[in-house]
């Protein structure tokens, strides 16, 4: 089987490429990535050693480039990770989120139709369901929870999901969608909560916790997310949506304190800053469908997963230091100006 993985130079896409190359020695993997600020070719270094892997730099929203790529590569399956993925950036500049996340998805699906791709898999997010109240721990997102988005990011992902379902119903596009909770693990860009806090704590810088720090996220190790997508593209039912989550709910404050403890840093580094506009309170996935229908179960629990992840960032300082020393610094100043 030949897989085309979009956004493979980012956090989850790169982990997925490593997973596929390792678990399926009979398959080949083609990666297409625009290498935006979030794409890091260095991450894919180990994949480049493998002759079953190839890379193309292109924009998924560029119709001509996608047509040429599909014509040349003839993929059997397309897994779409490519996206603008950071909520805070979508508050500052929504336009690119609509362009990449919605129009890019449409261009890819048109190419899938034209070149008879057997499966288009859309990597979506639990954020399409909006949020849950903090005082109702009995409530979870299921695949039938209505879409109710809060940020331009989640609205763009929900729009893409609707479009993918419309292409299935109208054109018979063979598709699946997965909606996953917050991922953590190796190679996450240090603008997201966990790597941001690790890198700042190590430098003894203040840790900007939004609002009261009581918002809850449902954390899943990226390896378990990749394993779930692998199952869906091989055994999932065409036209179906699958929620992915491992029942690992933590408040942001709990996550930050876990990091400080492991790094032996003081909680006085915690600095409460102005809340994110429209900040979702709680995400919590009910993974019953994928568990019962496809036999998926997470391998990691949060405590061991976090321990390993923090150690990974300690062992791979040059990877994230290179990022932080570049354009990211300017971004940080802009994003947090007037907030502290
Ligand atoms: P990321 O920001 O780390 O990586 C995104 C990648 O897409 C980058 O390599 C970037 O260069 C590439 N890209 C961006 N625009 C592109 C374009 N126009 N054409 C081609 N490539 C482009 O994101 P991530 O955290 O790895 O997320 C991957 C996917 O998973 C996204 O679709 C996201 O919505 C979804 N998701 C993420 C999480 C999470 O916790 N990170 C949770 C659920 C779902
Ligand atoms: P993030 O990693 O941006 O993921 P998402 O917004 O998609 O869930 O943020 C995770 C949580 O951490 C979210 O509730 C916002 C919060 N947060 C902070 O408190 N401070 C920060 O500097 C960042 C980046 C996030």
What report would you give on this structure?
The protein contains 13 helices and 13 strands. With 340 residues, it is of the alpha/beta class. The longest helix is centred in the N-terminal third of the chain and has 20 residues, at 95-114. The termini are far apart. The model has no long low-confidence stretch (mean pLDDT 96). It binds nicotinamide-adenine-dinucleotide (NAD) and thymidine-5'-diphosphate. Residues 87, 182, 192-193, 196, 208-210, 215, 217, 252, 276 line the site of thymidine-5'-diphosphate (TYD).
Write the layout of secondary structure elements.
Elements: E1 2-6, H1 11-23, E2 28-33, H2 45-48, E3 53-57, H3 63-73, E4 77-80, H4 87-92, H5 95-114, E5 119-125, H6 152-171, E6 175-180, E7 183-184, H7 193-202, E8 207-210, E9 216-218, E10 220-221, H8 222-235, E11 241-244, E12 249-251, H9 252-262, E13 270-273, H10 288-294, H11 302-315, H12 317-325, H13 328-336
Helix pairs in contact: 1-8, 3-5, 5-6, 7-9
The chain binds nicotinamide-adenine-dinucleotide and thymidine-5'-diphosphate (TYD).
What's a quick, concise take on this entry?
The chain is α/β, with parallel strands linked by helices. 44% of the residues lie in helices and 16% in strands.
In CATH terms, what is the fold-level topology?
Rossmann fold
Name the hetero compounds present. nicotinamide-adenine-dinucleotide, thymidine-5'-diphosphate
Number of helices: 13
What is the CATH C level class, in words? Answer: Alpha Beta
Q: What's the number of domains? A: 1
Which architecture per CATH? Answer: 3-Layer(aba) Sandwich
The helix-and-strand class reads alpha/beta
Largest sheet: 7 strands, parallel
Shape: globular
Low-confidence stretches: none
Strand order of the largest sheet: 3-2-1-4-5-6-11
Strand content: 15-25%
DSSP strand count: 13
Written as H for each helix and E for each strand, in order along the chain, the element string is EHEHEHEHHEHEEHEEEHEEHEHHHH
Mean of pLDDT: 96
- CATH superfamily, please? NAD(P)-binding Rossmann-like Domain
What fraction, in percent, of the residue positions are helical? 40-55%
Give the oligomeric state. single chain
Distance between the termini: 51 Å
Radius of gyration: 19 Å
């Amino acid at each position: 089987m030949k897989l085309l993985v979009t956004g493979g130079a980012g956090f989850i896409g790169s982990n997925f490429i490593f997973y596929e190359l390792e678990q399926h020695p009979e398959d080949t993997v083609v990666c297409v990535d625009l290498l935006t600020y979030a794409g890091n070719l260095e991450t894919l270094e180990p994949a480049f050693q493998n002759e079953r892997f190839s890379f193309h730099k292109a924009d998924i929203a560029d119709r001509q480039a996608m047509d040429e790529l599909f014509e040349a590569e003839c993929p059997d399956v397309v897994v779409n990770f490519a996206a603008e993925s950071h909520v805070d950036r979508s508050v500052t500049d929504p336009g690119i989120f609509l362009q990449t996340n919605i129009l890019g998805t449409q261009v890819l699906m048109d190419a899938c139709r034209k070149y008879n791709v057997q499966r288009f898999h859309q990597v979506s997010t639990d954020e399409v369901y909006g949020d849950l109240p903090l005082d109702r721990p009995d409530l979870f997102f299921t695949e039938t929870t209505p879409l109710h988005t809060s940020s331009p990011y989640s609205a763009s992902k929900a729009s893409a999901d609707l479009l993918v379902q419309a292409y299935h119903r109208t054109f018979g596009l063979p598709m699946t969608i997965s909606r996953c909770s917050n991922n953590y693990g190796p190679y996450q860009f240090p603008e997201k909560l966990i790597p941001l806090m690790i890198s700042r704590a190590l430098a003894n810088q203040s840790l900007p916790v939004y609002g009261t720090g009581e918002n809850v996220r449902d954390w899943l190790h990226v390896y378990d997310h990749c394993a779930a997508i692998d199952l869906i593209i091989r055994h999932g039912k065409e036209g179906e949506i699958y929620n992915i989550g491992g029942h690992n709910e933590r408040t942001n404050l709990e996550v930050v304190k876990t990091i400080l403890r492991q790094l032996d840093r003081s909680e006085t580094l915690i600095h409460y800053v102005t809340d994110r506009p429209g900040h979702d309170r709680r995400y919590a996935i009910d993974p019953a469908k994928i568990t019962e229908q496809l036999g998926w179960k997470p391998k990691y629990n949060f405590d061991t997963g976090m321990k390993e992840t923090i150690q990974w960032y300690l062992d791979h300082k040059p990877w994230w230091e290179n990022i932080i020393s570049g354009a990211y610094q300017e971004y940080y100043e802009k994003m947090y100006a007037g907030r502290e």
